[in-house]
């Protein structure tokens, strides 16, 4: 998604142990589905390592980082903020507006909560968006939101500096060295 | 999705403790995004309880059940089988075929693995499908696949026998008793 403004995913809240895999999956989903960067709380170092390891092996560009103040990231964000929440407006009603802002040059911060999100996040967000108003999964909500934001173009992206590449197959598994792996 | 053939999600493999939340999120995502039923391995009773509890409170129809033989579910399935895997064909290349089969009356079994999936699953599947050929999250893959299968119609569904309903809001949270809660 290099030709457009940044899309950054901010994971809000992380309980070590209990949330490890969900937080990691938020980061890997952000990477696979076209975001440019993920920001984790600073107690999620294990998730950071996993995402960086996947990016090293399967390619980028994608950045992962930690923050000791997610609230400051939100407060100081220069662009638009989308907070994904089951209490928000319906994604099918607001996605055109969000996409228009992004394509118009606004960097997007996508805020993905875990447990209870404080009210100021709802207020700071330009859009509170529900991928359904049903309880399900922050990973699922993020995935559908990104696929709709990019209208499927994220599936066509090329990966740079990968050392391996999965070849789509009708049956079975095929992994090959990436063309550019020789240059490493 | 009552007017069409069933879409059933089969969670393959579950390691108690480690996979609890992922398995629960597979079930909740299946429910929220238009599948009719989820089948968990029989060691995932906690996930079954959570999904049933959410269905009791937020509505259905949606069924959750356990099986002691996921392989038998696959072997005996009358309809088509989609196995979601990062090694599969690209979702954007095969989704029309899958949708066509489903709309033509074929019940769909969507197989969602956790760790290593045995080769016979790849062989039994009518389609092995990758929502990207990148490592990310089985929950994200399932979510995008369902949203594409139903072309967003799953977001318009009505929920029956709910006792509460979340009202989409620009800011804040609003939960109301469901209209049909009086009948309970």
From TrEMBL, chains A, B:
EC number(s) stated in the UniProt entry for this protein: 2.1.1.206
Residue positions binding S-adenosyl-L-methionine: 84, 113-117
Subcellular location: Cytoplasm
Main location: cytoplasm
Molecular function per GO: tRNA (cytidine(56)-2'-O)-methyltransferase activity
Keyword set, alphabetical order: Cytoplasm, Methyltransferase, S-adenosyl-L-methionine, Transferase, tRNA processing
GO annotation, cellular component aspect: cytoplasm
Reaction(s) the record says it catalyses: cytidine(56) in tRNA + S-adenosyl-L-methionine = 2'-O-methylcytidine(56) in tRNA + S-adenosyl-L-homocysteine + H(+)
Highest taxon above the source species: Archaea
Role noted for this protein: Specifically catalyzes the AdoMet-dependent 2'-O-ribose methylation of cytidine at position 56 in tRNAs.
Name recorded for this polypeptide: tRNA (cytidine(56)-2'-O)-methyltransferase
